[in-house]
Each structure stands twice: as structure tokens, then as C-alpha cells.
Design goal:
Layout: H1 3-27, E1 31-38, E2 41-48, H2 54-68, H3 76-81, H4 90-105, H5 115-120, H6 133-140, E3 148-151, E4 154-157, H7 167-184, E5 190-194, E6 197-201, E7 210-215, H8 221-224, E8 228-234, E9 237-243, E10 248-251, E11 254-257, E12 272-279, H9 282-306, E13 311-317, E14 323-327
Antiparallel strand pairs: 1-2, 2-5, 3-4, 5-6, 6-9, 7-8, 9-12, 10-11, 12-13, 13-14
Length: about 325
Amino acid sequence: MSKKNIFQILFLLFLIAGTIFVAHQNSNAPYRHFQGKVFGTFFNITYQCSDDLEQDIISALNGVDQSLSMFNEKSTISRLNRGENIIADNHLVYLLPRAMKVSEATDGAFDITVAPLVNAWGFGFKNQQMPSESEIDSLRQLVGYTTVHLNDRTITKDNPNTMIDLSAIAKGYGSDIVARTLDKAKVKNYMVEIGGEVVVKGKNEKGENWRIGVSKPTRNEEEASNEYMKILEITDCALATSGNYRNFYVKDGITYAHTIDPRTGHPVQQDVISATVIAPECYEADAFATSFMVVGLKKAQEILKQQPHLRAYLIYIDTDGEMKTWEN
């Protein structure tokens, strides 16, 4: 055996020994809890590790914020929307094609260009007056996911005034990025939650699957944090929930939900009031949960048949006005 082969074998044994040591070290490590605020919402992270990974987590979250945040004037997406020539960063290169894939699967119910309509109805970062039909028609000319193109690292828009908004997918993606950070650190057990979008792996502190509650839809804020429709016990997956039952307003006796149908330009009036989706990655769970609020129960069921890797727990109002649930 040559000296080169001996060296390669010794190096491989060294790597294996190091991996085993890290795994053993982490298996006896404490569970750490980390909370904070990002993307205009709160995050809660629990992970088992000998090392404090807070700085690594913060760095990962800041990277997503610098890329995707609509509220950060210096972010890549904000600069793009201002008409600056930008080179798409790794986050955009990864996320844009996947967002388009969800748009295709939902017949445009998920659309990253819907922001002008959301803002016009007063649910975005700009609080404007209720739009007229002519204003809606005008804004719809700016909406359409098929008008955005990614070529290598160049993003082009058929209409330069079209705005790209990844808010409906960014929290889920942020949870994915933190999960990747923990995976890189060889963490085997963790729960990452950003604004209700969750990624879990391994077991909780009790050695059980992670328990995630689906809130009972209510417009009573005092009840909202105390009652759950279902407790889901999950591991090694991602989960996201979207709902209209708290983010709405009433004008002239009409209830307007915060979810806008990009195909009509109007707030949705569907039977589904809460959609929880379980997927391999949280960006996907996040996007499909939003889509199911737009399309309603029947169409959501059809979409799920075409997406067998997804699980869903939907809360809806039946024709008699009763609250019901459906899951696959």
C-alpha cells in the first residue's frame, strides 16, 4: 500500500472519529432556547447542542433579511423593486424558481407580484384607502408571476413597475435557513419557529415528537392563545399555517380578509378559514398554506392530490355555517 493511500485512510478515519465525537457530545448536550424578532415578527428556537449557536442563527437570519425583506430598504429585493440593477444572491436564486413552481401548481393562486393589490386594500406596509374597481383593474396590469424571469443571476420583469414581494414565503424560508444552519452544526434535535412557520427535527426535551398546536379560529383575541383545534405531533418536516380569522376589517357591513386573490384583485371570500400544511421544506408549506386560503376547500383538495408529498389540515365553514375540519 502506498504512503498516499495510507494517508487517505488515516484522514478518513480521523473524519469519522470527529463525527462520532460531535454526535456523542451533542446527544448529552442541554436543550437551548433562543427568542427574538425578525421579519416584523417573533421567532422561537429550541435546539440541543453543547455550543451556543445564537450568533450563527442571527447571522443566517440577517442574511435572509438582507436579501428578501420588503421592510429593509437596503435589501436585494427592495433595490430590485426600485429599479436598480442587481445580481441575484443565493437566496433569490434558490427561492424564485421554487415560488414559481408553487404558482404553477396552484394556477396562480400564489403569486409573488401581488403586493400592489395587497397594499391597495390596506393590508400591506402602506395603509391606503379602499380601492375602486378602476384602480384594481389598473393594478392588475402589474400582477402576474409569469412576467418575472430569472436568467442565471439576472432578474427581469416584463413591466418595470411590477413589484416582487416574497413576504408570503420568506418566514418559511427563513425557518429553512436556520434549520440548515443547525444541520451544519450537527444538531440532531431542534424546533425552529418564525411567525408560526415551523421546522422540526428529531425529538423534544421529553424524547417525543414535537407538538405543534393549530389554533382554533376565533376573532376573540383572549381566546386565541388558549384554545387549539388540534395538536400535531411531528418530526423531520416543516409546517406552516395561514388564516384569515384575525387579520381582517369590516367596512359598510362587509368583511374583508387579508388574503388577496391575485387573479381577481379582491380579498378572498372562501370557505377555508385556516390552512395548515406539512411539507419537507417550510417555504413550500408556507406558500401552499397561503394558496389554500385563496382557492378554498374543493380546489385545495384537488391540488393536494397532485402534490402527494404534502399533508394538510384545513378548517372551513360548511354551507350551514358550521366549522368543520378536513385532513389528508
